[in-house]
Structures
1.
Amino acid sequence: MMRQRLEVLVVGGGPAGMAAAVRAAESGQRVGIIDDNEALGGQIWRGRSEAGTEASGWITRLRSSGVNVLRGRIFHQPEPHVLLAEADDFVRELSYEKLILATGARERFLPFPGWTLPNVMGAGGLQAMVKCGLPIQGKRVVVAGTGPLLLAVAAYLRRHGAEIAMICEQASWASLAWFGMALLTYPSKIFQGLQLKRELAGTRFSPNSWPVAARGTATIESVTISRRGKSETIQCDYLACGFHLVPNIEVPLVLGCEIQEGCVRVDDFQRTSVAEVFCAGEPTGIGGVELSLVEGEIAGFAVAGRLAEASILFGKREKLRLFAKRLDRTFRLRSELRNLPQPETIVCRCEDIRYSHLRDHMNWRAAKLQTRCGMGACQGRVCGPATQFLFKWNSESVRPPIFPARIESLAGLNSKQELCETTGGR
Ligand SMILES: Cc1cc2nc3c(=O)[nH]c(=O)nc-3n(C[C@H](O)[C@H](O)[C@H](O)COP(=O)(O)OP(=O)(O)OC[C@H]3O[C@@H](n4cnc5c(N)ncnc54)[C@H](O)[C@@H]3O)c2cc1C
């Protein structure tokens, strides 16, 4: 097994992780950053580093400050201050003195009849596939769910030749208007908003709307939308659907970091409740790229002991956190969405567990034990947040390996015994 010793290890190469790594390395720390994607940049930049962009600026600084860039996915903590990462063809042991977790967020999916049909995809997921080469030219796409990501995705797909049949946003006009007013105090957000408005000119945008059923044989052919109390069926080739984002807190959980309302609790300097472990970006709350960057910078300064420089950024972070709170309030899921699944609707798509098999259980643990809900390949990453919303279950429990890992990676561990015990019965 490859072993590497680092002063500072950053997990996650999105905006937060890159900013943290740069600030720590520029402060003289020996820094490694690990991400499970081909290229750095996280969900928003995904390796796009055209000269002159913000992404390229951070990547250039990262390279010139000597940060060691590693590829792999952290899946286990065999002992304190050691993490294991698996890549395509090897497993790596990383020991660190200080750790910065910047593991980002993922989309939240809610089950409704037909949501498992081919070509019903996460909004960000479809965007990512198009970025990786999926042809979308001339395809008719309905974008549905909630949150600002819907607009970003619709604009992106339209730029690449898709016909956006409709954008369906579950939030009401009133809350969107309130959010729009709040944007007036954030000049950069106004600019982004106007740009999206221009790009989406002529596209149907409907608040108070959500998908109730997707239909098709081999793939989706149409989606029925509940729109201001009435039903409307729209023909489409794709349904890009996401209900805002959920913080990725599996690695912080396995390290024992305290979680508050689904997010990692941090102090002013982005320190978690575990000594020498910091956290930045979306695991501490969903707030957008600017907040991720500033939290990353604070964590990078703090890990290097430059607390004065870190505290200069507190004001900026506070303003962006206020924006994050408004985001949360505006795009909070309405209770009607709890009625979307029918008894036969699959909720856990890894294990094919239907709504009728789950609704009578008391909690997440009982449902797991009785049905295997959340015990498949995604380990509850999709159905966990869905059942949290549908049944108010707390699905915040994680056991190593955090992600599915190869048998040979597990077999190479010193702590074989521990893994045998903790993975038994899965
Ligand atoms: C699917 C999706 C698409 C998005 N598209 C847009 C968009 O078009 N425009 C926009 O403004 N915002 C978009 N966002 C929101 C945007 O990602 C955030 O606002 C912000 O960029 C988050 O930055 P971050 O560094 O906190 O996290 P991320 O950018 O999510 O970076 C976290 C990184 O950590 C990696 N990671 C996680 N766990 C591990 C592990 N165990 N081991 C190794 N690596 C790990 C992830 O793969 C990821 O690369 C999107 C979000 C999602 C989920």
2.
Amino acid sequence: MSPGQAERAQADQAAAPRAAADRDAVERHLGQAFGALAGRPGPGAGPGAAGPGPIRAGSALTGPRGLELFDAQLASRHLDLAARWLRAQGAGYYTIGSSGHEGNAGVAAALRITDPALLHYRSGAFYLARCQQASPPRDGVRDVLLGLVAAADEPIAGGRHKVFGHRQLHIIPQTSTIASHLPRALGLAFALDRAARLGRPAPWPADAIVAASLGDASVNHSTAAGAINTAAYCAYQHLPLPLLMVIEDNGLGISVRTPPGWVRAAARSVPGVGYFHANGSDLAAVYDAALAASAWVRERRSPAFLHLAMVRFGGHAGSDVESSYRGPAAIAADLAADPLLGTARLLVAAGLLTPAGVTARYEESRARILGLAAEMAGSRRLATAAQVMAPLAPHHPEQVRAGACLAAGPARRDEAFAGRLPESAGGLTLAQSINAALADALAARPGLLVFGEDVARKGGVYGVTRGLAERFGAVRVFDTLLDEQSILGLALGAGLAGLLPVPEIQYLAYLHNAADQIRGEAATLSFFSQGQFRNPLLLRLASLAYQEGFGGHFHNDNALASLRDIPGLIVACPARPDDAAAMLRTCLAAADADARVCVFLEPIALYHTRDLHRAGDGGWLAPYDPPGLWPAGNVPVGSARGYGNGRDLTIITFGNGLRMSLRVAARLATSGIGCRVLDLRWIAPLPAEDILREATVTGRVLVADETRRSGGVSEAVITTLVDAGFTGTIARVNSEDSFIPLGDAAQAVLLSEAAIESRARSLLPH
Ligand SMILES: Cc1ncc(C[n+]2csc(CCOP(=O)(O)OP(=O)(O)O)c2C)c(N)n1
């Protein structure tokens, strides 16, 4: 046990008696309240009530369905108790429960099993109710218990996290970052209709709706606020967006009270988004409101809120002592609103259960679940890094190679390029080459979408997407609103729906305010679902510096550290036009074949560069390969490109550094110094073999790195060499650990040709 774990275990232990007392109070109250139901059969009671009639006059919930849902609610409650028991045994690892939120079983019942759901972590009853809808019905209790003990056989995350998710139940597992699933949910709702419009096969029927649930405190998160705003923005323009946002409002975010009435006021003020409300402790009311809300969303293809008033029992999680921040009266008031009691009342009033029958069912559920929990406690866990990492980066190089050669037929290409094929256009710039490669990809892959701020009408700030919207239509190439989180959310949803999204973020600096959508969402989905859900995507990012005095820091960002450490992410950085087209095709193929998340860093300063050594030499232009040459020009993921065969010095670089290094190498050659220059092309995974081979030839390495000294790419290159046992000379030149200032002062902090040259000379014998 690590010191941190020991501390935590101590804190857990210290809190355990008080947390257990809070929990026992809930059970005691429930037991008494079940008993007090005696002799209170209501007006609907009688033998007929067990038929398919309503559980209560005016409700669409039938008695038999109410009974089934009660079982889901009971099981969810006992799973919470089992979670704490397993934790106490040292066999379980997760105690955030669903107690008090069991009304969400009614939401599941009102939806179709084929409505994709992205659930709040208090969705035990929803999950179990959806299991009842499966054919044959599933034993969801086992799934949840396997999750609690982090069992390798748990069906969705395979022991990597405790999540609610299942492929056949159409439940997409969520991370722990509250509200981070809302942009994806929004994107999925958008993509369902978009896929249908494009005639693309999707995993969900065209009339499905997306359900996403969240807590009341989560509503205030900027991620939720952004997604809600985007939903309203779409609804305002009558863009189809069938998204049901279920707010499970227990009035608390861990210990912080949500101001009474706030969620209602906030939700009702969102233009174009429907608002439905129910008491979450009244199963029939939840079911009826969920039916109405889902019908509204389904028929109008418009977003809506379903706001459910809930209570929360047992604190936020197992070690949380609620009585330390809430008064006894507030806690006691919640007990009366126990949803289990609410459903028991309904069932007794309908004559479907006697009070003794309620208690018996409760105890039967307890016995079954505790018995199963004891059985699961010894489940097989993940034990090795290879087991844990298996779903991280699927790798089918042959399929990717084949996919990278996928081209439309000659007639379709002719039409797509309006008769002006790029291979006949002579030397192209980086921007023109990317534009042509995108057009080819749009022509060859009917599910591919290109979108972002200004990409359609304007054709991108730098003209990289110019003409694509006209040629491929607004359904596939479109402008979005100005919100990077929503742009990435659209991509996450589109990938999930079977499309191939190519979003653009206008500048690297603006990735950072939305980075969690890549880091916490896109990159983790395969990991937490063992590849059962996929979000292939290619994110294009106008990147890096050297915009000749223009723009200052935010248009010249050279920080890649936040991308470099994301497991499984592919980060490409083409410097030359010919590489860019081939690498774009490889990334799309990797996204398609292996569901990889790819980031494509496009050096802005090279977009329109034409020359290399002298004005007019056209050394930075390259012809565009026709499809027949794509197999020969294939660029596999993680393969570098070498220039020159000098034996004195190896310069390892990428991006703008490549052009600078090639110019430096030419100057050094006139002094009789022979260089070879290696363009990494891929920042992740790094071309480790190429690095070592080229370094070994000269025994002398200079890394020319335009990113910062701290966290920059050169750190990884040098570590690669050291790890491989390289014993030659290693040096590096970098940009400073600074933000980029406006104007010519930028040159004072950016890597320069002069710095590369002087360091190179210093490494050689004089
Ligand atoms: C982005 C983020 N910040 C903080 C947390 C830590 N955290 C976990 S749950 C939670 C409270 C959420 O409250 P609410 O949305 O009301 O849901 P509830 O737990 O009450 O059901 C917090 C702050 C987190 N998971 N994610």
3.
Amino acid sequence: MDETTVVRGDGAGLLRAIQARLPDLRLLTDALDRESYRRDETAYLATGLPLAVALPETTTQVAELVRLCGEHDVPVVPRGAGTGLSGAAAGIAGALTIAFTRMRSVLEIDEANLTVTTQPGVINADLKAAVAARGLFYAPDPASYETCTIGGNLGTNAGGLCCLKYGVTRDAVIGLEVVMADGTVVRLGGKNVKDVAGYGLIPLLVGSQGTLALITEATLRLRPAPPERATLIAFFGTLEAAGQAVAGLTAAGLGPVTLELMDRTTIRAVDDVHRLGLDRDAAAMLLVESDLPGQAAVAEMDAAVPVCEGAGATLVIRAENAQEAEWLRQGRRLAYKALEQVGVARMEDIGVPRSRIPEMLGRIEAIGVRHRLVVATFGHAGDGNLHPTFLLDRSEGDAAVVRLDAARADLYEAALDLGGTVTGEHGIGAARTDWLVRQRGEAAVAVMRSIKVALDPRDLLNPGRMLPPAG
Ligand SMILES: Cc1cc2nc3c(=O)[nH]c(=O)nc-3n(C[C@H](O)[C@H](O)[C@H](O)COP(=O)(O)OP(=O)(O)OC[C@H]3O[C@@H](n4cnc5c(N)ncnc54)[C@H](O)[C@@H]3O)c2cc1C
């Protein structure tokens, strides 16, 4: 048997029942096909080989699948594109993975109400392009936006490069259609901008990582397309100076749409791959952008320059045109992929209140030194959300992994000590369950458990993810 999590229920009976009741459903049972659904982007976690992978095209099929899984006591793992960084879409041995990639229709763009209604398997970039063709803008933009799905974004409450101004995925959701653990289809919200009837179930389900319900349709807020951005990059001699600039820009009341950080290791890795001509000797770089209308964007960048210089910027450069700005943005988006060229990369996702960014950056550097690990840091600094990424030398083997585990524990303690979080946007998933009680406390986790028991009493949906084992 492969690395295990859970094997339970009557898998063979489930497969027979699916084939009988849903003969048109695409169901992958071949071991090689299933193998590609074993992992998400957290290659280091123990995972399981799914019993089978279902690729439904309709809500009716999803509801029937969940009902059949209940009847046969086989757990369900919902999955989008598998780009997640917490192990929450990885396979569970003996469970049915329901991958939403064939539910990929944009159902309605409602220009009068500024909403889009979509199936969950639509790729984020495709949704953005579909609404942009009507002069509209869907804001949430994880760096993985060209590959991740809207369902996965809803499952994780994904952030991204312009959350600072426009909020995270949850802020964009006003309606959902979901399949509950007993197979019931429930519609929540709709197109009302204001709607306070009953408990707020949408914010609860968004970010629940497939542990409470399966999302089969979403109605999302749109905005008029913003104007072209003004973009600048600022280089710093120390990481802490860049952190001071982040805190300074926030304190100055500026509202950039993007405020992203890359440290020296990341700058060099990105420049090696993309040849952007970045200052490879700088200790850190900030990417700052404004999408205010007309001259206001230039004025906002004008105001950002003295703040960066006051914090110690050694060089500030403005993008000359939209193409140059897009190259810089794309360089930042692909930072993790560039770091993967350097060594085995393990990306973390801590967050701190923005005023504590300089201190957090100092602590990250010290943790790297203490555990003799290369740590590259980049991330959504304007949100206080950093991705310290440990880079392991393949030749070092297990010794480095032991040091990494210790470094990771120190990293989480440091973030919590500064009033922060062990995960800003990637989620607890399977990777961080040990830390949930440490961050939220026993009482809060008990409330979460009671919600899980109420909505999924048989622990059918993504078991073992998000909540640590009881007791
Ligand atoms: C290079 C790179 C950059 C990234 N940048 C960012 C970033 O900037 N911001 C960010 O937040 N994340 C980022 N991520 C992480 C990841 O892309 C996001 O978490 C994304 O939202 C996952 O989408 P997915 O379609 O791949 O979902 P998956 O990984 O397949 O699933 C993610 C979670 O959603 C659940 N889920 C999927 N579909 C459904 C559904 N229909 N109903 C209920 N639950 C569902 C799954 O069970 C799982 O818990 C990045 C990842 C990579 C590799």
4.
Amino acid sequence: MAGFAPRLDDINFTLNHVADLEQVSKLNGYQHADPDTVATILEEAGRFFSEVMAPLNQTGDQQGSRLGDDGEVKTPKGFKEAYDKFVESGWAAAHMPAEWGGGGLPYLVGVVIEEMFKSANLAFSLAPLLTHGAVEALVRHGSEEIKKDYLEKLVTGEWAGTMNLTEPEAGSDVGALRTKAVPQEDGTYRLFGTKIFITWGDQDLTDNIIHTVLARTPDAPPGTRGISMFLVPKYVLDENGEPGRRNDYKVVSLEHKLGIHASPTCVLSFGDSGEGAVGYLIGEELAGMRHMFTMMNAARVGVGMEGLAISERAYQQAVTYAKERVQGRPIGAEPTESVAIIEHPDVRRMLLTMRAYTEAMRCLLYFTAQEADFATHDETEERRKLAEDRLALLTPIVKAWSTDLGVEMASLGIQVHGGMGYVEETGAAQYLRDSRIAPIYEGTNGIQAIDLVMRKLPLEGGEVAREFITGMTTVLEEMNDFEELGESRDQLTTAIQGLAETSTWLGERLAVGDYDSALAGATPFLRQFGTVIGGWLMARSAVAAKREPADAHPSFLSDKVNTARFYNEHLLPQANGLIATVEGGNDLLEEASF
Ligand SMILES: Cc1cc2nc3c(=O)[nH]c(=O)nc-3n(C[C@H](O)[C@H](O)[C@H](O)COP(=O)(O)OP(=O)(O)OC[C@H]3O[C@@H](n4cnc5c(N)ncnc54)[C@H](O)[C@@H]3O)c2cc1C
């Protein structure tokens, strides 16, 4: 397995030219995060994740986490030491809220740190991802007492958090969950029920684990309206606020799965002894789904990041291999003139496809993260509202488009390796295995597409999506200044028109109540939307690169323009190929017999 080092040139370029780090650093509370300071921080972060986390990726995969005879999970060799360093060095808290002991960096910078961790070691990175979700839920909805007792230790990473939604009969349909929460006279609750697939549901890295658990109170109405959110610690805190007695739940088993072997995926049984697991209500009773969405939106962007991160890692590995592997020769060359496979046009096509999609995903992720910062920190209500709308529209696209591409790019990475990609030695196969979960958890990609079409497209009578799509056309005029971008501009013009057409068609289906046709086209529509946004943001990259002074990083800038052109001229045309699929309707699906 090749090592990993973040491509800081592309990361910094995207932060400053596609997202607007300078503007973000002027927001109240973020003034310490100016672009120069951030560049230095990211260099340090890159070193940490390359040197400490990346070397544990393959060994973590081979050893996996295991359930000991004592009922406790044991993580792979080296994970505990690496986690301690992660906490001590402050990376765990870097973009956590400053008032609770965090570094207070913008979310935009936090996602870059997350990206590096995920590229270095995807399975390991899931532990802090879920802790961040728990922090967000407590900051927004926790009582003062809960905040005082739990937040600081979660923020620093001394304790870890989890998300407990799924049950055997409640997957995509979270409203079907049955776990019970019985109120006690002292204001606490006792929880009874089984949760499955709980990521990092137990581990030996932290002194306590703080589970956020969805459950039903006794007279709750059916469905999502009857769900409340509870905090259930592994160890109930004693009078000094320290982990005390073991709470009443147990780890029944760990799943054996395709990838992310180092991440323990637990079946948890609450109230196993009959006493019930001690839980504390987070926020209001029956508002659990609303509160959980606070965690889920950030977690969905975080999972979208997994698509980008695994693509980056797979791309780096594929380039290294393609430069070393000697096989075949150019047409007409002598039999003795074998070349490295990176010389073959088809291999170069695969590599540039990987790089172009990876950079396009990076653009989308950073642009979305910046909007999250504007939504929470901008002074004007108008900008906050615009950012909230964009965030709502983009979240399902970030999650589903990026994670589908993550799998495809990891698969392409294997193809570059030929047979050596299919065997485990090079590590290329691990990337594909690890990537495959991302389109499934945090709401399957099918559910994301439904969210996009049924909830996001109709926002403000369709105005949010219309404005966003129209807004993409402004780059076309800027592209006119550069003859080299002419073909890209023509392709982007056509693709934006195609997206406007399918959005209108879907809007019309919804307006007449033909939901099945709209739902049948939802997944290809999301793919089309993501592909076009990628084209728009890569076009912005190309324009920015063309505008940089000629003597500033000439090879990086010409590569950037070349990659953006490849995206827009070779990959983007596929977007309009999806129009027929989006508008294909439901008739054939309905008539099919299986
Ligand atoms: C490794 C791993 C880690 C996980 N981590 C966590 C965790 O930490 N916490 C947690 O709570 N859960 C976790 N999950 C659970 C995960 O979120 C669920 O697996 C996911 O939500 C899908 O639910 P399901 O598996 O029951 O599939 P199902 O809901 O049965 O879906 C099966 C298929 O049907 C489709 N489908 C379902 N309903 C609809 C619909 N209404 N319309 C159209 N299509 C539909 C889905 O898109 C999917 O393709 C994890 C799962 C795994 C495998």
